[in-house]
Amino acid sequence: MRKRPLALLTAAALAAGTLAGCGSSASAPTGAAQKAEASGKESSQAAEGKTEAAGQAGGAAGVDVSGATGEINVWTNLSQSEMNFYVEEFNKRVPGVKVTVTVMPGNEYRTKLQNAFRTGTNAPDVATFEISDFGMYKNTDLLENLSTESYDAEALSKDMIPYVDELSRDNSGNLRGLSYQATPGGFWYKKALAREYLGTDDPEELHEMLKDWDSIIEVGKQVNEKSGGKIGLLDDIETVEQIYCSYKGAPWVDENNHIISDDFLMEQLNLMQRVVDNNVDARADQWSAGWTSGMYSQDMFILIGLPSWALNFCIKPGIPEGEMEKAADTWGYMEAPAPYQNGGTWYGIYSGSKNKEAAYAWVKTMTADKDYLVNGLAGQLGDFPAYIPAIEQCIEEGHTDIVTGDQQYFQSFYDTAMNVKADPMTKYDRQAWTSMTAQMDLLAGGGATPEEACQGFKEDMQRIYPEIVID
Fold first, then answer.
1. Cα–Cα distance measured from residue 395 to residue 63, given in angstroms and rounded to the nearest whole number
2. Planar angle of CA 342, 263, 6, nearest 5 degrees
3. Average pLDDT score over the chain
4. Are 234 and 275 in contact, with CB atoms under 8 Å apart?
5. CA-to-CA separations, 439 to 393, 411, 446, 460, in angstroms, rounded
6. d(CA 458, CA 462)
7. Looking at 148-289, which runs of residues are DSSP E strands?
C-alpha cells in the first residue's frame, strides 16, 4: 500500500532548516512569447482595478500598526524555523509586540486548537490555518470579523489576488482571516530531461506541446517508449489528482449536502486510468523518499504538478547540502492545462482574544507589509505573496532562483493566480482529498476500476459524514 502524509505537512517537515535565500537579478521581467506578454498585461490591468477598489474600501483604511504594543500568542503547525524567521521580521517592523509561538504537529494542532477555541481556555490570539482547516472555521463566530471598522482589512484584501480575497471571506462576505501567500500551480520540470525527451526546455514551447490532457497522454507514451520505460513524463498519477481536484469548479459537497457529480469524478478517474495504462507516469509515489530523490539524485520523471511552494518545499530540499551550485538552472516552471491553486495558509484572530490590536498588527504585517513580503517572504524564503503590490515589485526587480536559472517565474505565477477560480472551502475538503487519494491508490495498483473507485469514494465520504446525499 502506498503511504503518504498530507502534502503540506510533509513539505513543511522537509523544509525545516533548509530555507535558503533566493537570488534576484536587476533586469526587468521579459515574456518568452506574445501570449505571456498579453497575459501579463491582463494581470496588470486587473491589478490596477483592484488597487483602485482598495482605495475606496470601507473601514479604517491605512491603520498604522507599527506602534502597537502588547503580547500575543501565535499557534501554528508550520515549522519552528519558519516561525522564528517570521517573528524576527515582524519585530523589525513592530518592536512593541512580544510574540510567543507554539508549534505543534498537524493532528495534535487541530485537536488542541479546536478545544482551546471552543472552551476559551488558554486560546491563542492568532492561529494559522491550512486552506481546508480555514474552511471549517470561517463560518463560525470563533474567528474575529476583520471587515468591521476597527480594522483596515477590507482595503488590504481588495489588493490581494482575487481568489485569495474570495477564500478569505465567510458566506456573508466578511473577512475572517488574511493569507500571506498565493499558491498558483503548474508543472515543474527537469530541464535536462525535457531537452533530451521533449526537444526543448522552453516553458512556452513545452506548454504548447502539453496544453491539454490528451497531448500529455500522447507525449507520455512517446517518452516511455524512447526511454525504454526508464523515464515517466509525469512523476505519479497523484499529479493528476493535485491538478484536477484543484480546479473542479464546485465544492466537494454542496449546501444541500449533495456530493460532487459523477461526471467530475469519472472524468478524473478515467484520466488516471489512461495515465496508468499508457505508462505516462513513473509511479514515483508522490511524497515518498523515492519521489524526493527523483528531484535531484535520480532521473525518474520530467514533470511534477504542484503549486508555487513546490520549489522551496519539495524540489530544493531534495538537493544535498553543498550541491546547490551544481543544481543551478536544472528546473523550470510552465503552465498546466488549466489554472489551479493548491494549499495556502491563513492567519485568523480568535474572537475572544484580549489582545486584538496587537494580534492585528501581526496579521497585517505578515500579509500586507510590502517591504517584508518582497525582501523577507519572497526574497529570503522564496514564497509567493498574495498581496499584489508586493508581487509587482518582485516582478519589477526580476525575482529568480538559482535552481531555475534566469527564469523569472513570478510572472507566470501571477498570470496563473489572476485566472484561478476559487473553489468553495468546506468542512468536507480534507476528508474528500483523503478519500480520493485512497481510491486513486487502488486504481493505480489495479485494485479498482474507475467506476468502482467512484463508488468507493462516495461511500467512504457518506460513511464519515452520514448527512451526505449520493445521487
1. 27
2. 30
3. 88
4. yes
5. 43, 36, 11, 10
6. 6
7. 178-179, 184-190, 232-234
pLDDT above 80 (res 48): no
Q: E strand or H helix at 334, and its extent?
A: strand 331-334
The pLDDT value recorded for residue 154 is 97
Which cell is 152 given?
483596515
Using 50, 70 and 90 to split pLDDT, how confident is the model at 471? confident
Distance in angstroms (rounded) separating the CA atoms of residues 226 and 237: 20
CATH class of the domain whose range is 40-182+343-417: alpha beta
Of 233 and 426, the structure prediction assigns the larger pLDDT to 233
Neighbour order of strands in the sheet with 178-179: 97-103, 70-76, 126-130, 345-349, 178-179
Q: Alpha-carbon torsion 296, 304, 457, 112, what sign? A: positive
DSSP class of residue 37?
H
H or E stretch including 35? helix 34-55
What's the rounded mean pLDDT across residues 309-319? Answer: 93
CA 13 to CA 375: how far, in whole Å? Answer: 24
Neighbours of 191 (CB within 10 A): 20
CA dihedral of residues 364, 366, 367, 371 (deg, nearest 10): 100
| Region of 74 on the Ramachandran plot (φ > 0 left; ψ -120 to 50 alpha; else beta) | beta
Can you identify the CATH homologous superfamily of domain 185-339+428-471? Periplasmic binding protein-like II (3.40.190.10)
Of 356-360, 428-432, 452-456, the poorest mean pLDDT is in 428-432
**Total residue length of the chain:** 471
Q: Where in the chain is the domain with CATH 3.40.190.10?
A: 40-182+343-417, 185-339+428-471
